[in-house]
Amino acid sequence: MWELRHRGGGGPGPGGEAAAPPREGEAAGGDHETESTSDKETDIDDRYGDLDSRTDSDIPEIPPSLDRTPEILKKALSGLSSRWKNWWIRGILTLTMISLFFLIIYMGSFMLMLLVLSIQVKCFHEIITIGYRVYHSYDLPWFRTLSWYFLLCVNYFFYGETVADYFATFVQREEQLQFLIRYHRFISFALYLAGFCMFVLSLVKKHYRLQFYMFAWTHVTLLITVTQSHLVIQNLFEGMIWFLVPISSVICNDIAAYIFGFFFGRTPLIKLSPKKTWEGFIGGFFSTVIFGFIAAYLLSKHQYFVCPVEYRSDVNSFVTECEPSELFQLQSYSLPPFLKAVLRRESVSMYPFQIHSIALSTFASLIGPFGGFFASGFKRAFKIKDFANTIPGHGGIMDRFDCQYLMATFVHVYITSFIRGPNPSKVLQQLLVLQPEQQLNIYKTLKTHLIEKGILQPTLKPECSGSRWSFIQVCAMFKLQTGPRKVLLTFPIEDE
Q1: 278: Cβ–Cβ under 8 A, 6 or more apart, which residues?
Q2: 222, 154 in Cβ contact below 8 A?
Q3: How many Å apart are CA 496 and CA 489, to the nearest integer?
Q4: Helices and strands of the chain, counted as H and E runs
Q5: Fewest CB within a 10 Å sphere: which of 114, 241, 404, 461?
Q6: Measured between alpha carbons, how far is 375 from 248 in angstroms, rounded to an integer?
Q7: Residue ranges per domain, the chain?
Q8: What share of the chain is helix, strand, coil (3-state, %, to 5)?
Q9: Within a 10 A sphere around the Cβ of 492, how many other Cβ atoms?
């Protein structure tokens, strides 16, 4: 693109501007008055294009985050070197966060869901704030307003689906909610469409490229935060153990890798994160696998952690009561020959979930860190150290959960691929919202199917009529292959 435009003759003008080469189809010495209207519009577009193109190379500097370390900690650690000072700050804050996490676990699954939603909103805020700081000098119209509006729309879509799936009995009692659930996807689409139209109406000629950059920025941020947090909650509904073991494995890997790297780290692992070392990576791997195996054993003993989280309308709360599945029942496994010689025993008893925990821990320690490397590359691109300064010594919330989101996706895919079967509770809730005629048809079809399978006995219909006959019903218990079953038997009795 020529920096200076053709204004007149071939030499410099009064203002010292050099003339650009003539356009194709123009005379070399053409008068400036013959310039066409289209050329003027092109000049304007080019100047606005120059403004827009600043985003490609001239990214504004983001001001460094403030140090929010409590003054009491600063005074207590003032005599230490920066390396050990950071060690103690990270350690104290880590123990504090773990303690708060245990408290929320004790408060129940609903509080865990609120925690996930709060983290999602904060992570979204941190990423969007970076975008706003980068491009704040351009004063993009409606940028932050539309970003939060799209966050609301996407959350409404995902969690509306969750309410429809897991709160069907509650929705059935509330007429207003029935309308929202029945037309949920249409309402979600209408809300998003309204935001899309607002974005188009907000386009300003000199900010076209920037506005589309930020439109994409917002949607990628939504994909990273909202979608992944939705998967976290889906995992939680499968049982709290599917939430706790993966999350705690990532936390363990982060802590173990930091400790091993701090004391033994010598070999750099990846250029994106110069402080990451092979010693920390390998130490974190073995520590995480051992931790996950032990944590799976301890949690598998308790119904509170292994039962699917279900909403009970009669008590108006979430419950975790069930008969534990085979995954959480002790089984005996034969040991391979080399372990038999070492352990001097033929078999070992453990929970099947412990085997799955090895897969989860392996992913958390080998693949999970790449979520952190991805975040490191993002921060380097914008010349920032942390996403925010929410947690002293740790950075922002997104700095702590960059690996967790990748882990949540893996756990969800793992459950749906290798673990999950038909969910009787979910099927029952869907049946309860059907019309009575539909429920009756399903009942008759199911009854016929069970009789054909031999699970139920056909109802006796004696051909007896008249006033001399009456009937008595007896509830009998039968032991079938599938377990004990109650059957209602009807017998005719002749009146004396």
Answers
A1: 267, 268, 269
A2: yes
A3: 22
A4: 18, 8
A5: 461
A6: 20
A7: 80-431, 434-494
A8: 65, 10, 25
A9: 14
Residue 481: Cβ-neighbour burial (10 angstroms; 0-12, 13-18, 19+): exposed
Q: Which residues contact 357 (CB under 8 A, 6 or more apart)?
A: 245, 249, 292, 293, 295, 296
The C-alpha atoms of residue 229 and residue 408 are separated, in whole angstroms, by 8
CA distance 221 to 123: 9
Q: Is the pTM of this model over 0.90?
A: no
Average pLDDT, the chain: 80
**Cα separation, 443 vs 485, whole angstroms:** 17
Amino acid in position 386? D
CA distances from 96 to 69, 91, 150, 392 (A): 14, 9, 33, 12
In sequence order, what are the residues at sequence separation of 6 or more whose Cβ sits closer than 8 angstroms to the Cβ of residue 125?
none
Overall residue count recorded for the chain in this entry: 496
Longest Cα separation, the chain: 131
In the block, which residue shows the tokens 């391979």? 336
> Quick check: 21 and 12 in contact, CB under 8 A?
no
Distance CA 221, CA 130 (A): 11
Distances (CA, A) of 380 to 57, 123, 203, 405: 14, 18, 30, 20
Predicted pLDDT of residue 485: 59
- Count of beta carbons in the 10 Å neighbourhood of residue 178: 13
Annotate 460-483 with three-state secondary structure.
CCCCCCCCCEEEEEEEEEEEECCE
DSSP 118-142: HHHHHHHHHHHHHHHHHHGGG--TT
Per-residue pLDDT tens digits for 284-325: 999 999 999 999 999 999 999 999 888 877 777 788 888 898
Instruction: Tell me how far apart the terminal alpha carbons of the chain are, to the nearest angstrom.
Output: 112
Q: Which amino acid is at 359?
A: A
Picking from 114, 316, 396, the residue whose alpha carbon sits closest to that of residue 233 is 114
Q: Report the C-alpha gap between 29 and 6 in whole angstroms.
A: 10
3 state DSSP class of 341:
helix
Angstrom distance (rounded) from CA 206 to CA 139:
11
Indicate the helix (H) or strand (E) that contains 277. strand 273-277
Helix (H) or strand (E) holding 249: helix 240-264
Q: Residue 30 in contact with residue 43, Cβ under 8 Å?
A: no
Range among 20-34, 367-381, 413-427 with highest mean pLDDT value: 367-381
